[in-house]
């Protein structure tokens, strides 16, 4: 069963332009005008409109003060807002001028803090919008653990990587190379991390081979810092990683979640809402975001 492209194309401009590009194979002359609408219509305009004049996004239920700013920027990246457009440039300028890390010496937002799970997201947003400092890249390269991944608990003595942290850092490093061009050190770090994920079949423990977390077979959006197999597969697709039989179990998990109409349901939401913009009808109901991501993963990577 193919994805319901007509249903996807009837959604927000952020969904429509990506469905046209990734599933319908449309030329940029077709999907480009749809992408240009993201900053001024629908979800993109709603996210941009929630930013304060001081550069901060604020959501009352946020887990920590800078979370709404970080995850709103990452959501704009996922929506595909034009990073060079006036709306995006105004938003990023506000962040650069007004947002500091409250608990980390008041350092500028795009300099990052100390945890690689957070810094991976900061790097992904910064690189997408053209403001990522080299020092943050170097810090994350230095944080890579011996097994090939990253872990926010490394500072507390952990020597084993975390799937959650690793996927966040990978997204940041890939965005650096997409925005600046290939970098041998960054490419090597990503390739080591891909082996870390693939050796574990994207969801199994290295020690016992048992599945780590059944929730990784459900697909929320936004993902925030959390890992699931769809997030990993969509990253591997985006990075151009070749099909590998070690992806098969995860691909089957994604394919098995599709309904009879070629749509995928929204997974359980994270306990904190960091962006304050509703983009789907609710948990368990067909989700255009999940359907877009799942369909393009299966199109690119499934046999």
Describe this structure in words.
By secondary structure, the chain is an all-alpha fold. It has helices spanning 5-9, 13-22, 28-36, 42-49, 67-79, 86-98, 116-128, 134-143, 163-180, 184-199, 229-239, 248-256, 288-301, and strands at 264-265, 286-287. It has a two-stranded antiparallel sheet with strand order 1-2. Helix 2 (13-22) packs antiparallel against helix 3 (28-36), helix 7 (116-128) packs antiparallel against helix 8 (134-143) and helix 7 packs parallel to helix 9 (163-180). The chain is globular. The model has no long low-confidence stretch (mean pLDDT 96).
Précis, in short:
This protein is mostly helical and 303 residues long. It has 13 helices and two strands, in the order ααααααααααααββα.
The percent of residues in helical segments reads 40-55%
Portion in beta strands: under 5%
Question: Structural class per helix/strand content?
Answer: mainly alpha
Instruction: Quote the distance from N terminus to C terminus.
Output: 14 Å
What form results from the Cα inertia axes? globular
The topology string of helices and strands comes to HHHHHHHHHHHHEEH
Q: Helix count, per DSSP?
A: 13
Mean pLDDT across the residues is 96
> What is the CA-atom radius of gyration, in angstroms?
18 Å
Strand arrangement across the biggest beta sheet: 1-2
Number of strands: 2
Poorly predicted runs of 5 or more residues:
none
Summarize the biggest pleated sheet.
Answer: 2 strands, antiparallel
